[in-house]
């Protein structure tokens, strides 16, 4: 009787190399996608945290401005009293929480890398030597190369300026605050997240002299 014998053989070396190559390519694709998603999640979390810091800072400024008796025009701020250029500092005489105090905010780039910090300090109106140190509220703020307080698109708005478009017949100051946030390790071409709002202050409606809080501590 004749039996049929089935040949039982495995993969040849060539087939094995091809299979391993395909598997390696697939694994490389999977890992690259995982790494990309990990970085995107990290960037999104960092961006959300930066935006939340900026919003908290703006909320704090809003409370101080709404309780303010005098808001100095950011256009008139000087490097000598703030350590930054005009439109990068905001000075307020406020009664927030029932306490008369002078408050100063600024957006400053300490190390020249293009990324700024939002900082604030306060002092007694009667004694500029009794002041707090600068406290950082938000990081990773970027600013436009050119400043234009009349740009309709807002792409060149500075951090602080009196928004004349909102003045109308009111004596109050309408201060526009614009903070643009961008992570230092963001991909090339990434656009910053922008947080902007207009806050309303009473300014000199109640007759406070413009010299209030003009005695400013050293900006350092």
Task: Describe the 3D structure.
The protein has one domain. The chain has two helices and nine strands. Strands 1, 2, 3, 4, 5, 6, 7, 8 and 9 form a nine-stranded antiparallel β-sheet that branches.
Topology:
Blueprint: H1 13-66, E1 68-71, H2 79-82, E2 89-94, E3 101-108, E4 116-124, E5 127-131, E6 135-142, E7 160-162, E8 173-181, E9 193-201
Antiparallel strand pairs: 1-2, 2-3, 3-4, 4-5, 4-6, 6-8, 7-8, 8-9
Write down the overall geometry. elongated
Number of domains: 1
**Helix content bin:** 25-40%
* Percent in strands: 25-35%
Count of DSSP strands: 9
Q: How would a crystallographer describe the biggest sheet?
A: 9 strands, antiparallel
Task: Specify the structural class.
Answer: alpha+beta
In whole angstroms, how far apart are the ends?
A: 105 Å
DSSP helical segment count: 2
Gyration radius from CA atoms, angstroms: 29 Å
Q: Please tell me the overall pLDDT.
A: 83
Keywords:
220 residues, alpha+beta, nine-stranded antiparallel beta sheet
């Amino acid at each position: 009787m004749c039996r049929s014998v089935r040949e039982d053989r495995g993969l040849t070396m060539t087939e094995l190399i091809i299979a391993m190559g395909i598997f390696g390519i697939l694994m490389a694709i999977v890992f690259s996608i995982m790494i990309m998603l990990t970085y995107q999640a990290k960037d999104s979390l960092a961006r959300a945290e930066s935006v939340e810091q900026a919003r908290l800072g703006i909320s704090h400024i809003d409370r101080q401005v709404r309780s303010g008796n005098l808001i100095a025009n950011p256009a008139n701020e000087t490097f000598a009293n703030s350590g930054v250029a005009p439109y990068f500092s905001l000075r307020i005489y406020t009664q927030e929480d029932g306490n008369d105090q002078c408050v100063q905010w600024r957006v400053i780039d300490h190390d020249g890398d293009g990324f700024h910090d939002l900082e604030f300090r306060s002092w007694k109106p009667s004694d500029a030597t009794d002041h707090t140190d600068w406290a950082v509220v938000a990081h990773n703020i970027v600013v436009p190369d050119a400043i234009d307080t009349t740009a309709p698109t807002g792409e060149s708005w500075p951090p602080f300026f009196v928004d004349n478009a909102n003045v109308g017949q009111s004596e109050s100051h309408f201060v526009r605050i614009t903070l643009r946030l961008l992570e230092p390790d963001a991909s090339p071409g990434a656009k910053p997240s922008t947080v902007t709002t207009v806050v309303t202050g009473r300014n000199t409606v109640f007759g406070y002299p413009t010299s209030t809080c003009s005695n400013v501590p050293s900006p350092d």
